[in-house]
């Protein structure tokens, strides 16, 4: 878990090294996520000191790529709401209910082979999340394996775009994503799929082609990266906390909510102050960059009793894993569905589950990536 040491400081503090505000308190994060004076369009102007060359020459001040800057998560209303509205039907309660059968069948398929050791990432989380988002968007299934190649380089572009090699790799990944989207759009696209909705909006003149690419690439990246990461981290956390198969299959929805709080997939989101903001006795000036630390806020001891302990029966009312306010994660319901089904089926597969080897992680431009989580299981003695 990253950033927990920040809780020892004030809930809102200025970081001299980065030249940004860090917000870690649950109440302060909630307040700022719905404050209209903080813009989600930080890639346009939100620069830390890492992004300011020593000679003071920094181009137009924009960060990452033009395509990513068009992602609706990095825009404010009305542009944000207009783009989000086009694909919102994909994540309605009715569509999620219909998707459950597909997700359950896919999880059963992935868990069907007899194995002494199951790699939660390679054998379950990665193929599950990649194939589900391709299904939702209407992309050919053979695109799914490529998502695991693209996602890390796009993720790095969002946090380390001050490094030339990150820009090169990230731009290449985005180019390949848009090429795959274009190829799919030239063929038969399933009606009411994500690409179908975007193509129809383009035909009606509501959005341009770049908007199609931007929204499709956002859904591909977010639908795969955050969900696959969460499933892996959730299983790891449950094992380390001793939450066995009985817990996973008994109350998967409650377990998922506590796991979402306990080890947040998206640790932070950024905002750019377009006007002064007063919070927790501090004044954020117009033009300041603000890092809102979701992971640390989800471990706020003033809100959660014993926050560093995983308690599957905690029954929490709300956490900040999917954000808050107008930018609340559009795909939250789908992520919950995939995680609930995966955890339940794992709980049903074995009476006992344990790690077969230590989890394998790697550092990727400041991001910690869970690459492998091998588990094994069996039957209780006397069963």
TrEMBL record:
Family, per entry: Belongs to the cytochrome P450 family.
Region feature (Disordered): 44-63
Keywords assigned: Heme, Iron, Metal-binding, Monooxygenase, Oxidoreductase
Organism the protein comes from: Streptomyces pactum
Keyword Endoplasmic reticulum among record annotations: no
Gene Ontology MF terms: heme binding; iron ion binding; monooxygenase activity; oxidoreductase activity, acting on paired donors, with incorporation or reduction of molecular oxygen
InterPro entries, A to Z: Cyt_P450, Cyt_P450_B, Cyt_P450_CS, Cyt_P450_sf
Keyword Glycosyltransferase belongs to the record: no
Protein name as it appears in the record: Unspecific monooxygenase
